[in-house]
Amino acid sequence: MDIADVEKVRLGPWAEGDFWLLRRTNSPEMTEHLGGPESEEKLAGRHRRYLEPADGQMYRVVLAGSGEIVGSIGFWARQWRGGTVWETGWGVLPEFQGRRLAAAAARAVVGAARDAGEHRYLHAFPGVDHPASNSVCRRAGFSLFGPVDFEYPKGHWMTSNDWRIDLRAG
Predict the structure, then answer these.
(1) Quick check: 159 and 126 in contact, CB under 8 A?
(2) Helices 131-139 and 101-116 sit at what angle, rounded to 10 degrees?
(3) What is the span of the domain harbouring residue 32?
(4) What's residue 59's pLDDT?
């Protein structure tokens, strides 16, 4: 892990005033690999879940130096292959993409999931046709387990890569 990368960002707990960030990341280009934009009603529901997660934590990704919010990331419980694991997902605003901020945030969320305990593994499931998110997984230290059929959002099946990191290692 490159410490300089992690120091680029910090994670701030999701807050009431962060709804604008969900709206910004709900564009066709940001949701192309996720089944497309959500309705305002679905966004409001997502925001409520982010504010009071039942199991896990959502964060806004903040530039360490300026305090500018550049995206979101989190982890939540998911049933996977007969057990419960943490799952993670992220989004970085277009104007901040290409600067390895998502990988830095992913490394930070690995630490947060490790600190939360409960589950041994953290998984990410980017689409096989999404090179940027697969690169984030690789840079953040996840191991690739290969393609899987994955339902996201509900009713929309896609082929994703199953990336996993053992939270008890290292």
Answers:
(1) no
(2) 60
(3) 3-166
(4) 96
CA dihedral 87, 111, 138, 73 (to 10 degrees): 50
The model's confidence at residue 65, banded by pLDDT at 50, 70 and 90, is confident
Number of folded domains in the chain?
1
The separation between the first and the last C-alpha atoms of the chain, rounded to the nearest angstrom, is 11
71 contacts 91 by C-beta, under 8 angstroms = yes
Residue 30 near residue 90, CB atoms below 8 Å: no
Tokens of 96: 């901040």
Q: In terms of Cα–Cα distance, which of 60, 64, 162, 65 is closest to 121?
A: 162
CATH of the domain at 83: 3.40.630.30
Looking at the predicted structure, is the pLDDT value of residue 53 above 90? no
Over residues 133-152, the pLDDT tens digits come to 999 999 999 999 999 998 87
